[in-house]
Amino acid sequence: AELKKASKRLTCHKRYKIQKKIREHHRKVRKEAKKRGRKKPKKDPGVPGAAPFREELLREAEQRKQRLEELKQKQKLNRQKEQEKKRKLEAKKNAAKIKEKAEEKESSGKSKAKTNKLPDKNSKKSFCRELRKVIDAADVVLEVLDARDPMGCRCPQLEQAVTCSGGDKKLLLVLNKIDLVPKENLEKWLNYLKKEFPTVAFKSATLMKDKTMVRFRRRHARVDLSRTTECFGSKCLLKLLHEHGKTQNKAIQVGIVGFPNVGKSSIINSLKGVRACNVGLTRGVTKSMQIVHIDKQTKVLDSPSIIADPSNNALALALRSIIDTEESGSAEVLEGVDAILNHCSKQQVMLHYSIPDFRNTEEFLTLLAQKRGMLKKGGVPDIENIAKVLLCDWTGAKISYHSQPPGSQRPPPYLTEDKIAEMQECFNLKNLEDENNATVQALKYPSPANSIIFQSAGMTNGTIGENKEIEEESEWEDLEKSKDGEEDDDDDFTETDDDQDDVEEEEEMDVQEVNQIVSRTLALALASLTHDFLFSESERSNSLSFSLDKTADEDDAYDFNTDYV
């Protein structure tokens, strides 16, 4: 039961006693005031009725009052005017500051537009460019797959680019997060994938020590982190890479690629033994190629995530898209959650989240938000945020779900028997199978009843390298070359200006001679007025036509020069 508030009611004896104390206190204060000689100010008695000039005195008093009121009003108006002036000045200052900021933004925008600005690191083009760098530089490419949906993590464009690149470039599949699927399902996937590419079972370490962190000794009890930092499959993978390096007789570069949140950077940290790369639940943490030296013979290249093509279905875009859930719109997130729920068993989802039956996705999110206490003002369920949390759970390592491999082995068209044999040579597949079996036996797995059955949507199309980017890069190079060419042309123009000046001087001399001839013929025509008038007139017309032709050439030469002024 809730405690009631204490009552403010008093007994009559106590109330009367308080009142008596108050009266005594007031009496004491009045006596002290009399002793000090401080008396209350007397009220103005006014003008007596029998006083002479009473009306004049009253009039003067009223006038005095009016003057005082007018003074007060004037002072009040002056104060208001001063306050208005201050406000106007402050408003002008604020407006000037806003204008300055706007002008600065405009000027900076213009300067950015004028200067050749490099593309943003978060843009899709930069991700594709960095990914292409890793693929081209790597001798061995590791395609990282999430063991919960391996087929959905495979990118046909990437596999085709590696297998058809020529040379001795190899492609390996790394099946990560194997501790989140049942044991039987993991064995099925290993048997399916090894028929196409060499596949390594891997469980990366979830908590790594950072070299840059300062170690503090604390007195409280130690927490056993051995289970969380334990890694499985790293020895097998390093052994494979070293064997391939020996066959090549050189230090090899290993590129690690894959879709977001499959554990690319975590695998590098596990191979290195320390936290060499940043990891996180947010998608697209790695934005550029990073080089990590594992040992003298092996160098690992971390890459940005593969960008899922917009033509993929809603499920693939929800789980494999590079766009962060915090930045994406509510409609996209809700569509992604709806696609995930449609590809799962409804009863298993209800058991996992301990939620009653629901009719649609919105009702499911409402029930989940109420259960987890994610409410807005007024107790309204926060559907948008709970949808983002659910997406992060499904791409992270919180939820255990599994998908079944296809019933029949149908390799993609780019994977011919010759290509499969080429990818598998130089690797000891028997030792790889034994190492994978040892890794599978060493781990603990969730039971099939606790793992949600998931229907995979098949391979996810991705954009590895766009022709637009190559064209843009060539355009940047052409622009730089054109700038250099313009500078050279300016030098050429300065050299040819002297020749053009000589030509102009010669043309001016010709024009002067023609003008002299014209003036002479005109003088002879006006002076003689003889029968040779017609003859002189014909000479004049010919000379005029000749002069006009010359002036036209002169104008053309001048226009030609003005193009270079």
Automatic annotation (TrEMBL):
GO terms for molecular function: GTP binding. Residues 1-42 have a biased composition (Basic residues). Residues 53-109 have a biased composition (Basic and acidic residues). InterPro entries: G_CP_dom (IPR030378), Gnl3_N_dom (IPR014813), GTP-bd (IPR006073), GTP-bd_ortho_bundle_sf (IPR023179), P-loop_NTPase (IPR027417), TRAFAC_YlqF/YawG_RiboMat (IPR050755). Its main location: nucleus. Residues 1-122, 463-512 are annotated as: Disordered. Residues 469-478, 485-511 have a biased composition (Acidic residues). Residues 128-309 form the CP-type G domain. Keywords: Coiled coil, GTP-binding, Nucleotide-binding, Nucleus. One of its GO terms (cellular component) is nucleolus. It is found in: Nucleus, Nucleolus. This is Guanine nucleotide-binding protein-like 3. It comes from Corythaixoides concolor (Grey go-away-bird).
